[in-house]
Structures are given as C-alpha cells and as structure tokens.
Amino acid sequence: MPYSYLKKTYQNREKKIVAWGGVPEFLDRGVEPTTYQVEKRKQYLQSLLPEELKENYQGKKPKRNSRTVKYKENNKKLNRCSKGNRTKEKVEKDLLASSKCRAKKKDLPFNLDLEDVRLPKVCPVFGCKFNWTGKITDDSPTLDRIIPELGYVKGNVCVISHKANRIKTDANLEEIGKVWCWLRRASQKGCRTL
User: Fold this and answer.
1) 114 is in which domain, residue-wise?
2) In 3D, which of 71, 90, 72 has the Cα closest to residue 82?
3) What are the b/e assignments for 75-104, b being 16+ CB within 10 Å?
4) In a domain, 78, yes or no
5) Residue 24 and residue 89 in one domain
6) Phi then psi dihedrals of residue 130, to 5 deg
7) Three-class DSSP category at 53
C-alpha cells in the first residue's frame, strides 16, 4: 500500500531527528499520522537545528549565489548561439550519434557510419528544403528506419523530414496503405468517420 504524503513527511522528519541526535517517535505499522503530529515533529526538529540552519528551514529563501546566476545566463546564451549556427556536418554527426543511442536503448542492431546519414538537398518525401537551425520543425532532418524491426543497419535508413517521419512513425507499408484508403474514402464522402 503506498504511503500518504503525511506519512512520508513524518518519516522524513523522524530520520532527520535521529540524524541530529533527537528522540524519535516512530509510528506503528499501518498507522497514519495526524496533521497535528506532523506539525509537532516539525517544531521539535526546528528546536534541534543549529541557528544558521533555522532560517532556511522555516521557509526563507536562501541567498542566491551571483556566480551561479551568471553561469546559468551565460549557458543559455551559448545554447541559443550553438543551435542557430549548426552546420550540415554537425547535423549529420548528431543524427548518427542519436540513432546509435536509440539502437542501444531499444536493443536494435546498429552498423551505420557517417556516409549512411548524409543529408540530401531536399526531403525525398515532400521535396522541401531541410532546416537544421533552431528548434525542430516539420522540415527538420530526421533518420528513418524503413523497416523498423530491422534496426539501424545499412540500406534500412533514410534521411527524411520530421513531418514525414512523424506521419510514418513505426507503420509498415500495409498500414500506411490502409490509412491512405480510408482517408481517400472519407474525403470523397465529405466526412472524417466511416
């Protein structure tokens, strides 16, 4: 049976009380603490705290380290710049690296090299130019497995647009054919459900 929020809070406080040399009051198995008990233990825990920790524990925000803030701001600027200045070679390397990770995660075969993920000038499905700067859009290049079960192997991958890959997902030729037939019948009858 999952613990309630109150019980988790109570048990966490008891662990801190033990760690700081206080006297614990453990609950019996299956007993839920009341809000009064939880607050009482909070007050007892606060009495055990050293003075320098009390102000942070009572809910006051700790002072922000100005060096950390500057680091985060600079990091955001770097990320914005690097996304906009991606080169074709960088995109190809990224496609290869991400496909290798996905293959490992999904336990699929992988034997691709950089030549297998070269970007064509346009998407072979829609004929649109690839856009590899900034956020992922419909015309961003993606690596597609033609037959998903075979994995990322030579001859089974193609670079297509994100929109085409999203439409295909993991469907096979027969499933895409059925969707096409249904959509054609539905558009002729003027309705979306048959």
Assistant:
1) 84-186
2) 90
3) eeeeeeeeeeeeeeeebbeebbeebeeebe
4) no
5) no
6) -75, 140
7) helix
What is the per-residue pLDDT across 11-64, written as a single tens digit (0 to 9) for each? Answer: 888 888 888 778 888 787 778 888 888 888 888 877 877 666 666 555 445 555
Tens digit of each residue's pLDDT (9 = 90 or more) over 62-90: 555 555 666 666 565 555 545 556 788 88
Closest by CA position to 114, among listed 94, 132, 140: 94
If phi > 0 it is left, if psi is from -120 to 50 it is alpha, else beta; for residue 151 that is: left
pTM summary value: 0.52
- SS3 (DSSP) at 133: coil
Q: Rg of the chain over CA atoms, in angstroms?
A: 29
Judge whether 158 and 117 are in contact, CB under 8 Å.
no
